Amino acid sequence: MRKTRKTHMILTADIGNSTVSFALFRGKRKLAKWSLERVGLSGVASFRSALRKCPMRSKVEGVCAVSVVPALNRFFREACRIELGVSPLFATPSVIGMEMGGYPARSVGADRIVGAYAAYERYGRALVVVDAGSAITFDAVDDRGRFLGGAISPGPELMALALKSMTSRLPLVRLRRVRRVIGKDTRSCISSGIVAGAAGLVDRIVEVIAREMKGRPKVVATCGWARLLSSRSKKIE
């Protein structure tokens, strides 16, 4: 009699600088996703409230988290224990098992390793992974699946905040897709400058990384600003 493989119910959490994103999986099938804005996040209570939004939470068998905010990890761990009865596994280079191509494993962000590993698992070839969040990170993976390193620059939101905080008259704008770089008012000028400028930055850095890799790596983008930047980028595939 053929045995059927059990598919586990797993909750994933991405604890970022701006947002905490959750997704519930049964095997490889995504059942639900939701997020929590980290602004005003206050310890265990906020995480408990977010975890209560998890459908079928009584059936969750495990939690895997990637965090770039270590100060929040203990709050998340305690919330998982109370609401789900499980302890989360935090992703690290050693847990993921990705080979490091000369980059010190202790100094690389877990989010970068997870993104690089996932991209290589999907495409199985040399890559540049552009993670466009609060920061734009560029991570190079060779054709053997080794993490080579990359580059880090400010993301669009940080650029907009810097303009607002370091000038006397420029407003904070909501960034949007631009058809023309020549803006017709201050807000459209800021939006076009940041969006087109960040996309140009992506293209230039990817070009240099590809040259240093001595190949033609596939360029993939992920995270919150990926679609906006890909609308202007010539390199993101």
Describe how the helices and strands are arranged:
Elements lengths: L8 E7 L3 E8 L2 E9 L5 H9 L10 E6 L5 H11 L5 E2 L2 H4 L13 H14 L3 E6 L2 E7 L5 E8 L1 H10 L20 H28 L4 E5 L3 H5 L7
Helix pairs in contact: 1-2
Quick structural summary:
The protein has 237 residues and is an alpha/beta fold. The protein has helices at 43-51, 73-83, 93-96, 110-123, 156-165, 186-213, 226-230, and strands at residues 9-15, 19-26, 29-37, 62-67, 89-90, 127-132, 135-141, 147-154, 218-222. α1 packs across α2.
Q: Would you give an account of this structure?
A:
Helix content is 34%, strand content 24%. The protein has seven helices and nine strands; from the N terminus they run βββαβαβααβββααβα. A hairpin with a 2-residue loop joins strand 2 and strand 3. The chain starts with 8 loop residues before the first strand and ends in a 7-residue tail after the last helix.
Gyration radius, rounded:
20 Å
Number of helices: 7
Uncertain spans: none
Let me know the average pLDDT: 91
Ends distance: 45 Å
**Strand line-up of the largest beta sheet:** 3-2-1-4-5
Strands, count: 9
Q: What is the N-to-C order of secondary-structure elements (H for helix, E for strand)?
A: EEEHEHEHHEEEHHEH
From the helix content, strand content and strand pairing, which structural class follows?
alpha/beta
Q: Strand portion, in percent?
A: 15-25%
User: In one word, what is the shape?
Assistant: globular
How much helix is in the residues?
A: 25-40%
For the biggest sheet, the summary is: 5 strands, mixed
